[in-house]
Design goal:
260 residues, mainly alpha, 8 helices
């Protein structure tokens, strides 16, 4: 058996032939020339890989921006949750899922896609705060309604004192007016022989009232356990909403191989 015949394809040294290019970078979608890496199995250029390695070290600016965006989303979610409950009178725990998604999405936007453990903890806490503190506007709404309804109820239940009994005169003659006799004991100034007055109830300060409202709001998901069936379901759905925010703000897993 004879070997291959090289006389048909003589060697040439005038044209340089390069190996096929690896392709485009999966991160910047630009052609890759020379050295390249593999990120989660896909080809990436050296510049993008170096940028991703730097981004994995979270900066304070990224977290501060993510926190600001997350607080804004939590406030928006709280307002939406409370508005829906006040307008419809329905308590739908599934709104917690939307609040968790909104907080997670906002934090990712603020951090430019970066995540991590502290992002996850922050997102879960903001989701819980948004859902639980929505009870405060609802409480205020109930109090305002009761204040408006109370005078009407009292007016309907008040006895008709202005009308006189039939056959009796409603006028009082001057002779029948009760006389008041002032005794020396009653003329004495208070504090000598009189009993000490009871101390007046102190008014709650503004800061203390706000703190109490915050505590009641944060505890509201557990206070709803007074109705065990609906309370447990509400807590479970709230936990799922927090889990959504937790997963969305997780650190992306990057497996970098190379260079090649």
């Amino acid at each position: 058996m004879s070997g291959p015949d090289y006389s048909l394809t003589p060697p040439q040294f005038e044209t340089v032939e390069y190996a096929a290019a690896p392709g485009n970078c999966v991160l910047c979608n630009q052609p890759i020339g020379g050295q390249y890496y593999r990120v989660n199995g896909a080809q990436a250029c050296s510049a993008c890989v170096e940028r991703e390695r730097t981004a994995q070290k979270s900066s304070n600016a990224n977290y501060s921006r993510a926190l600001l965006f997350g607080i804004g989303a939590a406030i928006l979610g709280m307002i939406g949750y409370a508005t829906f409950e006040i307008a419809t009178g329905w308590i739908i725990g599934y709104v917690s899922l939307g609040v968790g998604w909104l907080v997670g999405k906002a934090m990712l936007k603020g951090s430019k896609g970066f995540g991590g453990r502290k992002y996850q903890i922050t997102a879960a806490l903001l989701t819980y705060a948004a859902v639980s503190l929505a009870a405060i506007p609802v409480i205020f709404n109930h109090v305002i309604k009761q204040k408006h309804e109370q005078p009407q109820v009292q007016a309907q239940q008040a006895p008709q004192t202005s009308s006189s009994a039939p056959g009796k005169s409603s006028t009082v003659s001057p002779d029948t007016r009760p006389s008041i006799t002032v005794t020396p004991e009653s003329a004495q100034p208070r504090g000598l022989n009189s009993q000490p007055e009871k101390p007046k109830a102190q008014r709650m300060g503004f800061g203390k009232a706000i703190g109490l409202l915050l505590l009641v709001g944060l505890a509201s998901p557990f206070l709803e356990l007074s109705d065990p069936f609906h309370g447990i379901i509400g807590l479970f759905i709230l936990f799922i909403g927090m889990q959504i925010a937790w997963k969305m703000t997780a650190r992306p897993k990057l497996i970098i191989d190379g260079p090649f």
